[in-house]
Amino acid sequence: MSREVIADSIETVVAAQGFDGFVTIGGCDKNMPGCAIAMARLDRPSVFVYGGTIQPGKERRDVVSVFEAVGQHAAGKLSDIELKEIEATAIPGPGSCGGMYTANTMASSIEAMGLSLPNSSAQEAVSPNKLADARAAGAAVAHLVQRGIKPSDILSREAFENAITITIALEGSTNAVLHLLAIAHAAGIPLSLEDFTATKARREDRACARCSPPPAPSMAGAYLIRWPSSPTDASPGAPMVS
Predict the structure, then answer these.
(1) Cis-peptide, bond into residue 213, ω within 30° of zero
(2) pLDDT at position 70
(3) How far is CA 27 from the centre of its chain?
(4) Which of 238, 115, 96, 123 has its CA nearest to residue 170?
(5) Are 134 and 211 in contact (CB under 8 A)?
(6) 49-69 burial string, b = 16+ CB within 10 Å, else e?
(7) pTM (predicted TM-score)
């Protein structure tokens, strides 16, 4: 329900104000697909900006580390002091949860679909790269308006297959299935649950990275991904995985 309210709200404001183009900003489970749904429905030049992932905590802790610590504390396996130390160091600042949960999964899939700028899904929320991404998004929208390029020109069947592929490759959240089906519906692209299995089989997709749970690398580490054989000027992060 919250996803639909967010999509409706964006659609209402953009349509009421008569915007030629717009930038959507999201950073958590429901607002990100809500942004993408609104972009597809409005079909006006637009770019999605991901708020960015959180930096890893001490000893690569993240929000799940806190959940596990609370359970261990309840079982008498962790002292009050130890629990407090984990709670105080697992979440060091702003940003979406660092593992490959719904937010980072949708950031990656939205980038793979072409609705956000290349390499934007793995940037830390507090990094200079994310600030540059936000500025570049505005310039990109101006360019899209001038060229008349709309989401319907980008959101093809292949674009959704790219999103499915990167979700599988990064062992992303299964919530991506729910959200990608909804985005495809808004875009008028036929997509079903069976297409996820078919895409995996056809492309022989397999996991090539693991960003959760701890002590696996955080999403912020995906920004540094490069294959040994890749060109030195190739974009790291999600584009490299794709």
Answers:
(1) yes
(2) 97
(3) 8
(4) 238
(5) no
(6) bbbbbbbbbeebbbbbbbebb
(7) 0.84
> Residue type at 116?
S
Rounded Cα distance between 43 and 130, Å, is 25
Whole-number Cα distances in Å, 164 to 104, 110, 157: 14, 10, 11
In this structure, are residues 53 and 96 in contact, taking their beta carbons and an 8 Å threshold? yes
Q: What is the pLDDT of residue 195?
A: 93
> What residue spans define the domains of the chain?
2-54+97-241, 58-89
The upper half-sphere exposure of residue 110, i.e. CA atoms within 13 Å in the direction of its Cβ, equals 36
Q: How far is CA 232 from CA 121, 219, 225, 236, in A?
A: 20, 22, 12, 10
- Lowest mean pLDDT: which of 2-6, 34-38, 39-43, 53-57? 53-57
52 Cβ neighbours under 8 A, 6+ residues apart:
27, 94, 95, 96, 123, 124, 125, 126, 127, 130
- What is the 8-class DSSP label of residue 119? T
Count of residues in the chain:
242
Please give the angle made by the CA atoms of 188, 146 and 184, to the nearest 5 degrees.
Answer: 15
- Work out whether the CA dihedral 54, 56, 58, 64 comes out positive or negative: positive
H-state helical runs in 43-156:
63-74, 80-89, 102-113, 128-147, 151-154
Amino acid 219: pLDDT: 60
* Residue appearing with tokens 């679909």: 113
**From 27-36, 45-54, 216-225, the region with the lowest mean pLDDT:** 216-225
Report the distance separating Cα 56 and Cα 97, nearest Å: 9
Question: Comparing C-alpha atoms, which of 159, 32, 175, 158 is closest to residue 100?
Answer: 175
